[in-house]
Write a structure and sequence with these properties.
Elements lengths: L9 E3 H6 L1 H9 L4 E5 L2 E6 L11 H8 L7 H11 L11
Parallel strand pairs: 1-2
Antiparallel strand pairs: 2-3
């Protein structure tokens, strides 16, 4: 594993166990930590990139109102071109 960045403090596995609440609060606030065991980095604690956003059905409909629907003829042509059209028996020898 690569060396931690300068702004990334190292914490031991033991320290993580004893100060987990404090450390997790810091991670939630954006702090990243390199976790060590016997003096070597074994992993990293990193904050989530951002909250997942739930989009309501009404919002989704509003965002895509006026957009063209799928081109069904092209979709079918792509299927015909790329999919095996004849049924085959997977157990036939």
């Amino acid at each position: 594993m690569s060396a931690p960045a300068d702004h990334e403090p190292q914490i031991s596995q033991r320290d993580l166990r004893h100060r987990s609440r404090e450390i997790m609060d810091a991670v939630e606030s954006g702090q990243t930590y390199a976790v060590t065991r016997d003096g070597r980095v074994i992993g990293r604690l990193v904050p989530e990139r951002g909250p997942r956003r739930f989009v309501t059905r009404d919002r989704f409909t509003h965002l895509f109102r006026g957009s063209r629907g799928p081109d069904l003829e092209r979709f079918r042509a792509d299927q015909d071109e790329n999919l095996e059209q004849e049924a085959s028996d997977p157990y036939a020898h």
